[in-house]
């Protein structure tokens, strides 16, 4: 069982990992932060990690190291906040620093819990949905951009005494609730990311510009329909997203003016969150890979496993890979190519 004396580490000092580490440290829980870059280690241990945004201005010094192998000793609780592409390698590096009863909380976009369980053992892995936003301005300078919650739980839904302590710690960052259906919660967030992150890269645009375009809204609807079909085949009960405000089952329900209703909902979402620039678009702009294989790729692979066609997700995944390889340029004109893909029969 985890206690107040737990040795804690946060792996990853990007937007989510850095903000999480700063507020946990500020609450009095001693931790170590794995930063990846030695220059950032010096900045965090010297000047402190700078946090701005809707939670006010903070400067938080803490113990920091550049690599996992430099951690000071075994950890009871690890918050894994790397990009999804890096999480398996990070998990492998963590093994010498974990006890049999240690907990590793996955803070990735997409669904990486099963891949982590294959490396760490399923008893160590706790799933987590990050329902708030932050951005990485410059090294050591992070901004909290939106409020929200954490949702935590065991991927197999079983009770776990450790969850109460994890909730206690994360409550110092943002409100945290425990779910007995964390896979349904994670899948709900995956659907959002598989739309916003992928089309943000393809169009090279913020969410407001994307969802002002009828083509993008139509592709969103087709992606959601495919994603939900795969979830049904996997026996995942998808929870409402966006703090319970977006019920995908209701969103896809047919009826009078259903198509108009769906477009109106997406148009309103686009207006409210018009300034959002997807994390995958930010990664591409910095010359890094996106997390497409853990988002749309997760849907594509499980669709094949369960015999559910996913032509729109397949096309989106392929196009993002083309952009990463420099064979296709980010442009709203790319939406025409996706519109030509025959997707689910749901009225757009």
UniProtKB/TrEMBL annotation:
Residues 181-324 form the Ketopantoate reductase C-terminal domain. GO terms for cellular component: cytoplasm. Gene3D superfamilies: N-(1-d-carboxylethyl)-l-norvaline Dehydrogenase, domain 2, NAD(P)-binding Rossmann-like Domain. Its EC number is 1.1.1.169. Pfam families: ApbA, ApbA_C. The keyword Cytoplasm does not apply. This is 2-dehydropantoate 2-reductase. It comes from Desulfosarcina alkanivorans.
């Amino acid at each position: 069982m985890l206690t107040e004396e737990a040795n804690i580490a946060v792996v990853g000092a990007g937007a989510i990992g850095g903000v999480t580490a700063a507020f946990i440290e500020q609450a009095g829980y001693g931790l170590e932060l794995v930063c990846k870059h030695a220059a950032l280690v010096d900045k965090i241990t010297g000047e402190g990690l700078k946090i701005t945004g809707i939670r006010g201005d903070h400067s938080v010094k803490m113990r920091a190291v550049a690599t996992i192998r430099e951690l000071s000793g075994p950890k009871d609780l690890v918050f894994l906040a790397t990009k999804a592409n890096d999480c398996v390698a990070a998990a492998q590096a963590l093994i010498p620093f974990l006890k049999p009863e240690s907990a590793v909380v996955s803070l990735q976009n997409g669904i990486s819990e099963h891949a982590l369980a294959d490396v760490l053992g399923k008893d160590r892995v706790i799933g987590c949905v990050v329902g708030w936003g932050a951005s990485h301005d410059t090294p050591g300078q992070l901004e909290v951009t939106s409020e929200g919650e954490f949702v935590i739980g065991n991927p197999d839904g079983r009770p776990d005494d450790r969850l109460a302590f994890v909730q206690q710690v994360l409550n110092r960052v943002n409100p945290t609730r425990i779910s007995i259906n964390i896979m349904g919660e994670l899948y709900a967030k995956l659907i959002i990311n598989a739309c916003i992150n992928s089309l943000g890269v393809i169009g090279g645009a913020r969410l407001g510009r994307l969802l002002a375009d009828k083509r993008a809204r139509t592709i969103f609807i087709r992606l959601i329909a495919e994603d939900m079909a795969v979830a049904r085949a996997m026996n995942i009960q998808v929870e409402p997203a966006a703090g319970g405000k977006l019920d995908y089952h209701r969103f896809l329900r047919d009826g009078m003016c259903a198509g108009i209703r769906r477009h109106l909902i997406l148009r309103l979402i686009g207006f409210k969150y018009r300034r959002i620039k997807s994390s995958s678009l930010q990664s591409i702009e910095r010359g890094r890979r996106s997390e497409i294989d853990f988002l749309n790729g997760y849907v594509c692979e499980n669709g094949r496993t369960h015999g559910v066609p996913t032509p729109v997700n397949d096309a989106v995944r392929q196009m993002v890979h083309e952009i990463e390889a420099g064979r296709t340029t980010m442009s709203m004109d790319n939406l025409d190519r996706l519109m030509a893909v025959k997707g689910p029969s749901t009225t757009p």
